[in-house]
Amino acid sequence: MAFPIKVCVVCGEEFELKPDKPGFANRCWDCSAPDATGPGAPRPGDADKADSEANEARRQAMRNLLYRQDS
Length: 71
Description:
By secondary structure, the protein is mostly helical. It has one domain. 39% of the residues lie in helices and 8% in strands. The chain is built from two helices and two strands; from the N terminus they run ββαα. It has helices spanning 29-32, 44-67, and strands spanning 5-7, 14-16. Strands 1-2 form a two-stranded antiparallel ribbon. A hairpin with a 6-residue loop joins strand 1 and strand 2 (14-16). The longest helix has 24 residues, at 44-67.
């Protein structure tokens, strides 16, 4: 059984739609791959920075609660 032939919506080239192909069903492999690292995709370092900033804010809040002086 032959795989269906599709036309890529990005580049217009024909490709075979295979069942185990990663990516989109209406894009060829070359056009599907860059989406994972495109400009809109979050970078791995961004999550670490946000986590460290949130952790620092938590530590500061706990420090203020624990060591504040009730006067």
